[in-house]
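Sorry, explain these tokens?

___
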Amino acid sequence: MKNLKQLLKQPLKAVPSSIIIFLLIVALIGFVDASYLTIEHFRGVIPPCTVTSDCGLVLTSSYSVIYGMPMSLLGAIYYLTILVGLFAYLDTKNAKILKWTLLITIFGLLASLSLIYVQVFVLYSYCLYCIISATVSVVLFISAMEVLEKYRMIESK
């Protein structure tokens, strides 16, 4: 917690728009993927899945829903939050908005790792769409940590 407070206090140098646009594109891919799964969930349709073993098993398991809400909807909300934060940063150049947006990627990483664990070690089945979302979450997290490290302003004592 102390490191998080310290990180939030450290100012950031201006992050190039090209990096933010890259993050926007990656988050948009995750949003489209999660939104598609959410729509199909509410339609009661299992999306076609030819590359992996059984999307149906994964998408209809008890792990795919939490309190009646599909995990894909939570994923879509997560990616939308990232998108809104990145757009807000592009508009305002407020470093605090960018820091919080980048730190939120920790939750996406943890959720994705736990859901991949369930697929591999509990269900023994894989969902291509879920793997795409997990990959997007990992890319967002690694990119976010790189941005926070590369563009932080080190205070001299």
